[in-house]
Amino acid sequence: MKPLSKILIFVGIVLLFIVSGGIFVVREGEQAIVTQFGKPVGEVSYAGAHLKIPFVQEVHRFQRRILKWDGSPNQIPTKDKRYIYVDTTARWKIVDPLLFFTTVTTEQSALSRLDDIIDSVVRDAVSGHLLHELVRGKDYQPPVGARDEELALVTEVGREELLSGIMTEAAKSMPEYGIELIDVQIKRLNYVEQVRKRVYERMISERKKVAAQFRSEGEGEKADILGQMDKELLTIESGAYRESVEIRGQADAQATSIYAAAFNSDPAFYAFVRSLESYKKAIGGNSSLVLSTDSVFYKHLKSIK
User: Fold this and answer.
1) How far is residue 275 from each of residues 128, 271, 299, measured CA to CA in Å?
2) Three-state DSSP class for residue 266
3) 232-283 pLDDT, tens digit each
4) CATH topology of domain 67-191
5) Where are the domains of the chain?
C-alpha cells in the first residue's frame, strides 16, 4: 500500500472519530443538557440527532417521562397518640432540565431530596390528624345501629382532604428544583406491632360479645319454644285425661245400668251371684272367717249341706 493511501485512511479514521464524537442522539422520552467544561451551554428537549463539540462538550440525559418515588415506611404518631406505619408513594417529572441540572444534577439526588420533602410533609400531616381521618373518606356514613363512639368518629375531614393538603404543601418546594409533583398517595397504613395486638384483642372481644348476644338470643328462643311445647303437651295430656275420665264414667254408668237391669230381672239370683263374688275375693287359701250365725254373709254358707 502506498504511503499516501495510508495517510488518507488514517485521516479518514480520525475524521470519523471526531464526527462520531460530535453527534449525539436523544431518544424519545429523553431530554438533555449540554455542558462545556462543566457549565451548561445548551438544552435539548426533543428527540433526534444533535451536534456538539467533541472532547469539549458533554451530554447529560434526563427522563421526560413520569417518574416514581417510593418512600420508606415510617413510624408516625397520630394526633390521638396512636403509632402507625405510613408507606407513601408519589409521581413526579422533570419540567426544567437546566434548573434541575444546576440544583440536584442527577435523578438519584432528586429522589434523595424528595425523601426529605415528602417525608417531612407526610409526618406533619399524619401527626396533625386523628387516625380515623387517615383511613376514612369524607362521605363515610356509620352503619345503622352504630354505637355512640362510632358516631363520634364522623368528621368533615377525610383521607382525600389529607392527601390534597400533603400534595399542596410538598409541591411548593418543587419548582426551585425544576420538578413538577404530579400526585402523592399513601400506599399502606398499619398499626405498629404493639398497637396491632391491642386492636386484634379488641376485635376478638367485640366478636365474642356479638357471639354471646347471639347465644343469649338463641337460648331465649329455645326457652320460648320449650315453654310452648310444654304448654301444648299439658293441653294434650289434660284433654286426654278428661276424655279418659269421660269414657270411664260412661263405662261405669253403663256397667251400673247393666247391674241394675240384672238385679231387677231376678233380685235373689243377683244377690246370690254377688255373694259368690264376695266369697271369692274374701276367702283365700289360708283365710279364716269368723262369722256370727245371723250374719248376711253367712246366709248362703249356712244352706250348704
Assistant:
1) 112, 6, 10
2) coil
3) 888 888 888 888 888 888 888 888 888 777 777 777 777 777 777 776 766 6
4) Tetrahydropterin Synthase; Chain A (3.30.479)
5) 3-63, 67-191, 193-275
